[in-house]
Amino acid sequence: MSPDPAARHQEGARHLTPARVLDVDPLLEDPKTRIVVCCGSGGVGKTTTAAALGLRAAERGRKVVVLTIDPARRLAQSMGIDSLDNTPRRVKGVDDSAGGELHAMMLDMKRTFDEIVEAHADPERAAAILGNPFYQSLSAGFAGTQEYMAMEKLGQLRARDEWDLIVVDTPPSRSALDFLDAPKRLGSFLDGKLIRVLLAPAKVGGRAGMKFLNVGMSMMTGVLGKVLGGQFLKDVQTFVAAMDSMFGGFRTRADATYKLLQAPGTAFLVVAAPERDALREAAYFVERLAAEDMPLAGLVLNRVHGSGAARLSAERALAAAENLEDPRIVDQDGGKAGVRNSPDADGSSDPLEPASQPSPESSSLEPSSSEPLPGAPDTPDGAPERSVDQLSAGLLRLHADRMHLLAREQRTRDRFTARHPEVAVTEVAALPGDVHDLAGLREIGVRLATDRPELPEAGA
Predict the structure, then answer these.
(1) What is the pLDDT of residue 375?
(2) Using an 8 Å Cβ cutoff, are 156 and 119 in contact?
(3) Which residue in 435, 413, 426, 437 sits closest to 28, CA to CA?
(4) Helix axes 314-325, 388-419, angle to 10 degrees
(5) Exposed (0-12), middle (13-18) or buried (19+): which is 199, by Cβ within 10 Å?
(6) d(CA 460, CA 453)
(7) Which option is the CATH number for 13-178+258-307+412-450: 2.130.10.10, 3.40.50.11810, 2.40.100.10, 3.40.50.300?
(8) β-bridge mates for residue 67, sequence order
(9) SS3 per residue for 397-444
(10) CA dihedral 343, 344, 349, 353 (to 10 degrees)
(11) Which of 357, 363, 364, 361 is nearest to 334 (CA)?
């Protein structure tokens, strides 16, 4: 008899079957790997993945810094650091027997912007820029500033050549790879027509400049003044004049960091969950990275579910549950023995001795299944507490739901791997709770490296 097709499908549902399996340890141990970038949509575990990779690399002998841009600040909690800031801080409790170290930091985009100004402008001009209201708004919340400053900070860390490996936790983003686009967007803003118009009077200088502004662009600045406000427009002009000598530097550094991300020493990991929307986003990330010639190492699939009883299909579990909940004739206690041995069975007039009559002793010791057990609590309507059969049926239904989830995840993963068979994949099992310490990060690292969909048995 051939196996149930549904059972065969469920049995295979717990194993990912990509063309390639991602092997994380060789990537982390390779001294040529200097930057690992974790990217993906929000809520898929990028921060935890980045921290776990950093910890695993450090405990295997590398000096690592993890740069997070996630505003949730979960990384600090997991690493036992009260707060992260713009300065790398060493993480305590890491096994350094192999000679490695782990440092962590959180991007402070305003502080990073301030550092750029202080490093590339003389003290007087730097003070004018830092005190400018428009600069303060730009550095604190201009669209793309966070992503641009992440690129700046990555470039700074790499230029210091202090760490063997830099692990970057990118911002959660619905539009693919905003942190790659941000330098171009900010560069376009700084090189745009509006900036050149506002910069023109300052470049002409003195009274000639003011005359040029009043005569040549009075209409335009009048409109801008009404839209933006006169004081705001003045702040922008002052900012642009002070930043003029730095504009080219922004574009140059952005281009250098962009090339750094394309270099062989960089590896991108796309992080996703086995859900349709997350894997659709992951597919877009994969395609975008390929279009930008960014080196993709593979896909990390987080929160994958499994079952130790996958041979029992959802269909069989549901059938068994229904049979327990509604036994009908075939499962009645004692079958038809009572009817068969009754005086009028089959119309017979010959009375027969009733079979299997319980003795008073046995009746007092072994209550029938229709009666509640002695001392068993009653439900509010007086019915006995749920029987073992009902509890078993409930567990079977839970198992069926689990198997349906596994099958759905498998179909979603199969669609991704069919579309991108070239992408290496590793799975991380769904954990029962949040990761909040180094032990949890260490366990995530083990799962990242060994591609185990199931949690180990206790004591294994």
Answers:
(1) 45
(2) no
(3) 426
(4) 160
(5) middle
(6) 15
(7) 3.40.50.300
(8) 105, 168
(9) HHHHHHHHHHHHHHHHHHHHHHHCCCCEEEEEECCCCCCCCHHHHHHH
(10) -20
(11) 357
Torsion 447-450-454-459 (CA) sign: negative
Which residue from 287, 290, 309, 421 is spatially nearest to 16, judged by alpha carbons? 421
The Cβ of residue 19 has, within 10 Å, a number of other Cβ atoms equal to 12
User: What pairs with residue 103 in β-bridges?
Assistant: 65, 90
CA dist., res. 403 & res. 317, Å (int): 9
pLDDT tens digits, one per residue of 234-286: 777 777 777 766 766 777 887 888 888 999 999 999 999 999 998 998 998 99
Spell 202-241 as b/e; 16+ CB within 10 A means b.
Answer: eeeeeeeeeeebeeebeeebeebeeeeeeeebebbbbbbb
Q: Region 418-440: what's the mean pLDDT?
A: 87
Winning range, highest mean pLDDT, from 145-149, 332-336, 388-392: 388-392
Give residue limits of the domains in the chain.
Answer: 13-178+258-307+412-450
pLDDT for 290 equals: 92
Find the range with the poorest average confidence among 106-120, 139-153, 300-314: 139-153
32-91 pLDDT, tens digit per residue, is 999 999 988 888 888 899 999 999 999 999 999 999 876 566 677 778 777 788 889 999
Q: What residues have CB less than 8 Å from 373, skipping those under 6 apart?
A: 367, 384
Angle at alpha carbon of residue 264, lines to 258 and 270, rounded to 5°: 70
Report the C-alpha gap between 94 and 101 in whole angstroms. Answer: 7
- Enter the pTM of the model: 0.73
The answer to whether residues 13 and 410 touch, using CB atoms and an 8 Å cutoff, is yes
List own/partner pairs for 313-316 with CB under 8 A and 24 or more apart: 313/4, 313/6, 313/7, 313/9, 313/10, 313/403, 314/6, 314/10, 314/399, 314/400, 314/401, 314/403, 314/404, 314/407, 315/4, 315/6, 315/400, 316/4, 316/6, 316/7
In three-state secondary structure terms, 455 is: coil
Give the best-scoring range by mean pLDDT among 94-103, 133-142, 445-454.
Answer: 94-103
DSSP 122: -
pLDDT tier at 224, thresholds 50, 70, 90: very low
Residue 304 main-chain phi, psi, to 5 deg: -85, 135
